Amino acid sequence: xxxxxxxxxxxxxxxxxxxxxxxxxxxxxxxxxxxxxxxxxxxxxxxxxxxxxxxxxxxxxxxxxxxxxxxxxxxxxxxxxxxxxxxxxxxxxxxxxxxxxxxxxxxxxxxxxxxxxxxxxxxxxxxxxxxxxxxxxxxxxxxxxxxxxxxxxxxxxxxxxxxxxxxxxxxxxxxxxxxx
Length: 180
Hints:
The chain is mainly alpha-helical. It folds into two domains: 3-34, no CATH class; 68-178, Glycoprotein, Type 4 Pilin, CATH 3.30.700. The protein has helices at residues 3-11, 20-24, 28-34, 41-92, 100-108, and strands spanning 128-129, 132-133, 142-145, 158-162, 177-178.
């Protein structure tokens, strides 16, 4: 086997298409000594920068998805509560008394009333705090009914809403999640 062929075979893929005349000018040991196996500092910094940008994009996307998920959960909970309240109203002819605690009790705990056919809804313990049903942001849902309260938006039945991600009452606008 010729020396030039041996150098190419030994260096394998690390030899970048050099013409055979340049190989004649160098000895095998010189070629092996000058062949670098690794990355330069600039290459490593470029990779780190690209990975940082990608991580930032993924994190921002995850936060947006988490926010949308919380809003969807609040809407679904309000819809489920509306169904349970409608069943309660159908059985008893009145709405549960105003207040989050009263709503939870009326829908989940047995009543002395013979017409009560519940429970109308089952709630998980991690959704409750002190008897109140919490929204995905940890604040209690607001429930006002014609039975002991003054609903503003649905004056002949009830208002049910969450203050949403910002946690402040925007009177049903901006990010509040409402049933009207």
